[in-house]
Amino acid sequence: MTTAPPSTAMLAVEDLTLAVRRDEDVKPILASVSLSCAKGEIVGLVGESGSGKSMTLRTAVGLTPAKADISGRVQVSGLDVLGASGKELSKLRSRTASMIFQDPRAHINPFQRIGTFLCEGLRIHQRMSKEEAARKATGLLDEVGLPDPARHMRQYPHELSGGMLQRVMIAAALASEPELLLADEPTTALDVTTQAEIVSILLRLRRDRGLSIVLVTHDLDLAVSACDRIHVMYAGSIVEVASAAELARAPQHPYTAALFAARPSPDRTELKAVSGRPLGLYEVEGGCAFAPRCPKAIDLCQETAPETRLVDGHQVACHLASEPPVQPVGPLTKGERP
Amino acid sequence: MAVMTESALVRRRGLGRRFGGNKAMTLSIGVLTLFVLVALFAPWLAPHDPNAVSLANSLQGTSADHLLGTDQSGRDVLSRLIYGARSSLLGPLGVVVGATLLGVTIGVVAAWRGGWVDTALSRAIELIFAFPGVLLAILLVSVLSAGLKATVLALAIAYTPYMARMTRSAALSERHRPYIRALEIQGFPAVSIIVRHLLPNIAPLVLAQASLCFGYAMIDLAGLSFLGFGVQPPQADWGAMISEGQVALLQGAPLSALAPGVLIVCAVVGFSLIGEGVADRIRRADR
């Protein structure tokens, strides 16, 4: 794949394969995932629930399940994450990379004031004095566009709305002056106008701070509008990578095409769901993971997993990808599982 | 939302819980505060020296001089009750503080580390559970000689499993909440997350359990004093007073045994009500 050389890539995941062991059972979660994010780039990771997006993201900060077989390489700013010591990991998490989450209300201690929450990291990781930390925290709240930072510092999480709390979480993530921001569905729990505001904050941070951002989402429109490049993920593998504009113009993989077709839109009267249900990697029995739901599947798809190939600037893992771009997908009918 | 709140209110009113519970708790806090104050200011409150023996005045009924009469050694029962509040409250306090420190440490470590550490600690806790506390106390007394120290130490160990088990389950559910995970991802050291976030957030539960244990510890300590293993004569102690009052009871002067009994019951019920009250509030807040 066209992974940028490790020296310029903020995040480079190469050929990451991960399986969770439980007793005698081995459950594969990720299959040969490759992903890269250059300095100052916003990269999208799109896919249905359970496709392994969050797991990939967590691996980037060394958070892997306790009993897992992992192979491949994960590098963040030159650090080999999978081989890193506990000390290096804690430095990575407290300095280089920060993470924000889908549900800010669940991810902030409900019994602490916003100010306490923000200052804790500054005081522990950067050894600031109380006053210094408070000043910096107030500045961060201002930077993420909260109207009255001084007042919010004294408030408790339940006094703020979801959107405001997500800004607080972004402020907390910025406190360590990270180079890489991992955003795990940061807008999913928010209403549409707030989503737009959060995305514009992310874009501004990239511009002002040169932040690299990996944006995990299942909202294709959001990804297309915010990201430079998009990785589409299905059943633990990346099925298509392309620049956002190119992906929106001509999706190559039938799954990407089906996702675009399934978007609600004002000038469409009927929703076209991708039929069937998303499979976990562990349920796939040879062949292409999407084959059971794919409208264009041929015999070959059932038998062998497709190699990734380069078509019109898209990296796409589909046997049929060399054919002309997939035409608008009608209602998908072939939804039975093998 | 409005509907939910309403039905909840109706249900609570039906059980008479919401206000009844609060009243009982307030009353308990009042009674126990009174006990603590009495224990603190015993020298100023007691009308007589609690250990002044006067055999000529033994087993007297209530009189202006001895409001609750005298015991078989002629000591003023009221004064002994007032001084007895000290060891009777300090003993359970020692038990609860010891058991809480030990139990919370074990519970949190087990919950945080999980895996074999959790398994080992949990089995160890069950082992102590299986051993009767009073028996442990008698064992320790035979090693350390009788007295408050040995019995408190023994009961602190015996009560550790109650605190540890509760703490472990509370810490376990708290540990897997997203905000703790998020703090880990932010690279905070485990000790700082535990001390600054996890412990304060499970503190009310620990407090409720400790309060319940206080009542039980009081009964056990009184029992041990009654059996002669705990506080030694002539020191005043409610449990020991009941023991000493046995003969008096038979001789028709029940006050010297009954009065400390009533106080023990009041204190135990008070601590139980407070514990239940706190636990009830937590349950209500969680709903």
UniProtKB/TrEMBL annotation, chain A:
GO terms for molecular function: ATP binding. InterPro entries: AAA+_ATPase, ABC_Ni/Peptide_Import, ABC_transporter-like_ATP-bd, ABC_transporter-like_CS, Oligopep_ABC_C, P-loop_NTPase. SMART domains: AAA. It comes from the Bacteria. It is found in: Cell membrane. NCBIfam families: oligo_HPY. This is ABC transporter ATP-binding protein. It comes from Streptomyces albipurpureus.
UniProtKB/TrEMBL annotation, chain B:
Signal peptide: none annotated. Pfam families: BPD_transp_1 (PF00528), OppC_N (PF12911). The keyword Disulfide bond does not apply. The keyword Ligase does not apply. It is found in: Cell membrane. Residues 85-275 form the ABC transmembrane type-1 domain. The chain crosses the membrane at residues 21-46, 89-112, 133-159, 206-229, 249-274. Belongs to the binding-protein-dependent transport system permease family. This is ABC transporter permease.
